[in-house]
């Protein structure tokens, strides 16, 4: 299984390198359209290779997606944490009740009762 993963990563690396070499032409990226930039007096643009733009977009999309899911699942993590706390509290209460129930009994019988 490990070799299959390494083979997949090698093929993925070869594909990414070939796409990068095929798309080396520079493209102009602008922050806002030129008509609006002239009105505001602020124009930011950068010239980057096309593969950087494409791969950067993919990476940005993955990061935004992971962040979005992490924030969306917050309530589930909070509920799980609350449930774990409640389970711990109930386990302590059960131990305390068993101890109170076994008071005055033989120690061996009390230990056996606590184990079950």
Q: What would you note in describing this structure?
A:
It is a single chain. This protein is mainly alpha-helical and 116 residues long. It has a domain at 2-72. 76% of the residues lie in helices and 9% in strands. The protein has a two-stranded antiparallel sheet with strand order 1-2. This is Lipopolysaccharide assembly protein A domain-containing protein. The chain crosses the membrane at residues 46-68.
- State the secondary-structure class: mainly alpha
Mean pLDDT: 88
Number of alpha- plus pi-helical segments: 5
Largest sheet: 2 strands, antiparallel
- Number of DSSP E strands: 2
Radius of gyration: 31 Å
Shape: elongated
pLDDT below 50 for ≥5 consecutive residues: which ranges? none
State the helical fraction.
over 70%
Give the DSSP E fraction (strand runs of 2 or more residues): 5-15%
Distance between the termini: 42 Å
Series of H and E elements: HEHEHHH
Largest sheet: spatial strand order: 1-2
Subunit organisation of the chains: single chain
Pfam families: LapA_dom
InterPro entries: LapA_dom
Transmembrane segments: 46-68
Keywords: Cell membrane, Coiled coil, Membrane, Transmembrane, Transmembrane helix
């Amino acid at each position: 299984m490990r070799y299959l993963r390494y083979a997949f990563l090698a093929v993925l690396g070869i594909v990414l390198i070939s796409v990068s070499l095929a798309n080396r032409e520079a493209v102009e990226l602008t922050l806002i359209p030129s008509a609006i930039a002239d009105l505001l007096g602020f124009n930011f643009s950068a010239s980057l290779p096309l593969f950087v733009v494409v791969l950067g977009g993919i990476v940005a999309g993955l990061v935004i997606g992971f962040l979005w899911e992490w924030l969306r699942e917050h309530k589930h993590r909070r509920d799980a944490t609350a449930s774990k706390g409640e389970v711990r509290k109930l386990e302590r209460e059960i131990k305390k009740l068993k101890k109170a129930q076994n008071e005055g009994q033989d120690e061996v019988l009390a230990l056996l009762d606590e184990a079950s």
